[in-house]
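Here we describe the complex-level prediction in full. Unlike the single-chain runs in Section 2.1, the two entities below were treated as one system.
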Amino acid sequence: MARTWSVGLALWLGANVWLLMHQGAERVREDRAIAAAESLAGRYAVLYGNAALTPQFEQLFALRERMLAGSVERAVLVVPLPFTFWVPLARHALFPIQILEELPGGRSEAQLQAEVVRLDVGALLRFEPAAGWTLWRPAGASQ
Amino acid sequence: MSASPLPALGSALLLTLAGAGILRLLRPTDRLTPASLGLAFAAGASWLGLVVLAAGTVRPWASGPVLVGLLLAPAAAALVQLWWPGRRHDLVAGGAEQPSPQAGRLSFPPAGWLSFLPALAVAGFSMWLALQRPVWNVDALMRWVLHGQWLHAYDTVLPERVEDPSWSITHPSYPPLVPGAIALALDFGADRFMGLRPLFPFFFLALLGILHGHAWRHAGPRAAPWLTLAFALTPCLAYLPQYAAAAGGAQQLPPAAGLGSDEAMADVPLALLLTAAAVTFLDLCAAPARGTALLCALLAAGAVLAKQEGTAYAPAMLAVGVAAGALRGGPGRRLRVACGALVLAASVAAAAAWTALSARMPVMPGEDYLGSAGLAALGDNLDRLPVILGRLGRELATVELWGPLWLVPLLWLAVAVARRRGLDAVSILPVLWLLLALVLIVVAYVVTGWRQGQYEWLMQVSLTRLLLHHAPLCALLAAELAGLLRRAPPTPGPVVSATAS
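The structure predicted for the assembly as a whole is:
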């Protein structure tokens, strides 16, 4: 009976090794590509499978520094629906700037202005596929 | 801030030191084995969870230097005890006192460590993966890491500024242990993008150490390395990322989002703490002792504070354990039940304390599982059951994610019934705990109001992770299966006094 157990264990181990060879190799290939990307922005771009995103990641990280330098404590994100992957990343990357709300894209300037007034925030961070990230600080904002 | 893994390494070392001190005070041993170091890391993490919990009420407690000081305190106390080693006594079965094993010179049993090398290699592979990529999983970014950033910046994991309902999307009421570990690494100067992931393979390594010790005692020294390795290579635990689903072509795997033990998530930490509590509880049933009970109570509280699933599951698991301990007769029954009740009380107290402290934090609509709305939904949504059970069955049979892991409980039951052994109330506990876990998982999907009740979508993105918390029970059963198949009944001792591991 002990031999039965050993054979079972060998089969279990063998199956997992086989799966590692077939599935894990994909991960290792991708991790090498990520490691090869030079900047943090480049690594995120590889993770999201789109090298064209690199400058937009760089914009986001640079905007954080600008906001911190300008003593901005709270912001609103405006991100169109197909690009909502930015939301968790921005919440984490921009800390300690608080992201108070996420708004879908496609809003007019007047609507955005109204949101900024309603939420009483110092900045509105907007993503557009063509222009990347832009920071809008309304005149007379409280922060 | 540093992108190097050293701050994470320092945090892991500090947690292990704290836990080693606690272990030294509660269950002294002179052997440093993979199992005892795994338990030490788990105990240190649990201690950190309690410290951060306390910081919910006394804010300055969670500042970096105070956290480090409170983690070093048990290690210092153990050192003092090592230098003045008066005779200690422990309460054992039957109510008699007997001397605890006094540690002399610490030793590293080479056979145990050599046998652990294959598992160590897998954890090393996991560490290598962790060093390549930044934190990028949605749950890691918006929950665990963000909460760690709060704790690091505001000295509390429950800052007033996130009480606004618009913050509910980040789940501020999630338990504090993993954010505590992240904040500790940030206190040591870790980079928030590249420096945090290297902390997480240590939870995996500690889990493997504990499983190795259990396998050593139940399946024997020859089988222990291979059994531990087989579990360590379970695809969704070792390496499988989300994009394997996208690249899957005709055969679509569930999106096991962020799985792999190197992601900054709470799933592997919860699996570690539940396993540590389970193994220690089984020890407690075999040889009831005050020190073991206190250690188990600490680990159970850690499981409660690791993830909200642990908050619900750990007390239920321990209630089943206490009932099983009461059903088993023989000498020491009273002490066994008393020790079990202490452990259960600790888990309930931790759950109640965190629930009370985090009550003012906003919760996403439809995700108040433990509240009255969640319980009321149970009766209304029973029509979901066939879909949920079908999806659960398919998940358990998905070899690409789990290998043959979920066959183990079935084989264990078949052998136990056929040989009429191992069916007493305590021996069958791992199977009962597994059944309890499956029931709670099903109930969670029945009551969920996630995204207006899209439970099928929720299963798609979370079921693998929920099962991961309980997967190590299969490895415990696999080790015990070897004992069941032996002619003579096995007579294992407690984990820290095992000969080599």
